[in-house]
Amino acid sequence: MSSSSTTTSPPFPVPDGFKLHTENNAHILMSENEAFLNPVQEFNRDLSVACIRTWSEELNKAKDAKRAQARQKRASRAKEELAKKRQRGMMNESDAIDIEPESLQPSESTSEIPQAGSKEDVQVDYKITILEALSATGLRSIRYAKEIPLVKYVLANDLSSTAVAAMKRNVELNGLGPSKELEETGSAKQANTHLGKVRVNEGDACALMYSHRTDRVDVVDLDPYGTAAPFIDAAVQAVKDEGLLCITCTDLSILATNNYPEKCFSNYGGLPLKAEYSHEAALRLVLHAASTSASRYGRYIEPLLSLSIDFYVRLFIRVNSSPYQVKKALTKTSSYFVCTSCQSFYEQPLGRVVEKQGSRENVNTIYKTQPGPTVGGKCPECESGLHIAGPMWSGPIHDTDFVSKVLQHTESHKDLYGTASRMQGMLTVAKEELHTKFYFTPTKIAGFFHCQTPSLEETTSALLHAGHQVSRSHASPGSLKTTGTCEDVLDVFRSWVKKHPIKNVSETSPSLRLLAKEPRMEANFSKHPKSVTSSSKVKIVRYPETPANWGPGSRPVTGGNKRKRKHDN
Questions:
Q1: Which residues are CB-neighbours of 425 under 8 A, at least 6 positions away?
Q2: pLDDT tens sequence across 305-339
Q3: How far apart are CA 74 and CA 78, in angstroms?
Q4: What is the 3-state secondary structure (H, E, C) of 375-402?
Q5: pLDDT single digits (tens) 83-112
C-alpha cells in the first residue's frame, strides 16, 4: 500500500479548492500553502508507527510482568500474615483453610488475600499518550491514533492557526475528534463529552511541553522544519521514565558539513566534521545534544534506533531517570581528531572510569578526566593536518534487540506500510551494524591511494582474516564498519597496492606519504566464510534509489505578504 492523492472515487466528498491525500488508512484534505506536508516523508511516518507500536507492546509486556510480580508478592505476604495469625491462635480450627490464593473463598478472614479473577487480577493493557509538538497537517498524529493499538490519545500541536484549522478538519474527517455520548446516571441521561483520540492544541511547542513536566506523556515526537535543537530541552522533561523521544532533524547542511561550525556548536554543543562518515557524526551530534539536555535534570538516554535517511536524521531514544546513570554520560562522550587528507580519525574520550576496591568487598566507582591528546599535531598515517570535531556521543547508536523486534514486526505486517520493503532493508542493515564509531568505503580509501578499488568482498575478507569484525553501515551504500583501527584499514590497502601497483603519482600527493609506511602484516584477500552474512542471502533492497520529490520541501507561506510569482503578474 502506498500513499496517493486520490482523484477518482474518493472515499469522502472533496470540497472545491482541496485535494484528498491518502496514506495507509489516514485521509487529509490539503489546500495550497495551508500547512506543510512532504510526501517523501512517508517512510519516516511508516518507520515511526512501527517503532512506537513495537516499543508500546514491549512496554505493556514489562508492565504486565511488574503487575504479576507485585500480585505474587502481595499473595506471599498475605500467606505469611495468615500463618502468623494461626500461630497466635487468632483463628479457630473451623477457620483454617488452604491458603493458596486460587483456592481461597471470599470471607472476612481472607479478604486481605488477593482473589483470582478480582479487579487486581484482571489484565489491563497500558495505553500510551503521544505528544506531537509540531503537527502541521496532523497526518502523523492521525496515523498514530489509527495504526497503534495501544494509543490512549494523541496531543497534536502547532503554533500556526491555519495549520490548527487544517488539523481539526482532518481529525474530524477521520472520525477521531471530540464527540458527545449519552450516559445513564441512575434514572437520568447525561451528555458526556469525549475529547477524542486526537486532541488538537494551538500554541507554542516548548510552552506545551514544559507544561507537561508534572503530567508527563509516554512519547514526544519532534519533526520540525530544520533543526529540533530548540525543542529538545523541553522534550526530555515532558516524557515519562521508560518513555520514547522521537527526533527528526533536516539541517544536514549544518550537521554533516563543516560549512557552519558556529551554528552546529550553538545548536548541538559540538563541532561537525568533513569526511565521508559525516552522516553518522550528525547522528552522534544530535544524541549528544539530547544526552546533555537530559543530564541536567537527572535523566539519561538510551538510543534505540538512529538512522540517517535521505536528507534528514531520525532518532528513537528511550529516556529514564537515574543519577548514577547520568554520571556515565561523561564516558560516552568524545571529541575526534580527523585528518584533512586520508580522513583517519582519532578518538579523545572526555572521561574514564576508575574502580577501586573499598572496605567490605565494595567496589567504588570514580570518574576522572581522560589524559590527552591521543595523537600529535599531524596525522600518523599521512602527516597531514588534523581538525577537531565534537564533543559528540560515542556510545552505541542502536539497540540491536529493539531493532530486531521492529524488523520482525515489519516483516510480519508488510501490508500495513507502503514503504515496507525499504524499511526491511534499512532495519536489516541497522540490526547487523557494529557498535563502533564511523564507517569507510573502499572506493574512497582507494581514491586516497590512487589505486584500483578492491571489491567489498575482498576488503571484508582481508579484515576478517586479520581478526577484525566487519559489518555494513546503513548510512551509505558500499560502506563498511570494523573493529579495526584506521591504521588497520590503511594497511589492508597498502597490501593491496603491492599486488596492484600504481603509476604516475605526483610527488606532492598524500598517497606517497601513505605508501611510505610499510604494512605491519600482509593482507589475505581470499574469500572469508563470514564475508557474506546470512541476511545478505535474502533478496532485499538495502539502499534504495533516491525517491521522487527528494528534499525537505519549501516552508509553507501562511501570511498575507506572499511574494507573487512572475507568471502571476
A1: 540, 541, 542, 543, 544
A2: 999 998 999 999 999 999 999 999 999 999 999 99
A3: 6
A4: CCCECCCCCCEEEEEEEEECCCCCCHHH
A5: 888 887 755 554 544 444 444 444 444 444
